[in-house]
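Can anyone check this?
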Amino acid sequence: MNSHQKCKILIAEDDADDRFLIEDAFTECDLTNELEFVVDGVDLLDHLNRRGKYADLEGEPLPNLILLDLNMPRMDGRTALKQIKTSPELCKIPVVVLTTSKAQEDIVRTYGLGVNSFITKPVTFEKLVDVVGVLTQYWECVVTLPAAEAA
């Protein structure tokens, strides 16, 4: 991935208001990343593995980056993260936790599971815009990511 390519970002977030704010923050930063949303860990893993309602994505490239909330119904982000990072097919996708949690236990545990970054959700929209701008700049222009592989 280089500065001429846009990250395809898959966002696991159960809160509709937070999904709206995150999408709006990308717009506010004039970013044109391809964003996809799932509402919990089960949907996240189904999306990544092209199962169930996501079976039609078979053959499509996997996301370049996952933004992951920790506190979601059905399957939380911690459990989903563990499954992603132990999967030979998925473990190369960078995962950034974006959550309301500030708990040291969550920070330590998710880094132990292989998360690439841990970000506590900002309390204001302006700060969220700042975070989205920095996050996207870093993952698109600073680091080199593996090419997205087709599922």
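Reply from J.R.: I decoded it. The first helix runs from residue 16 to 28.
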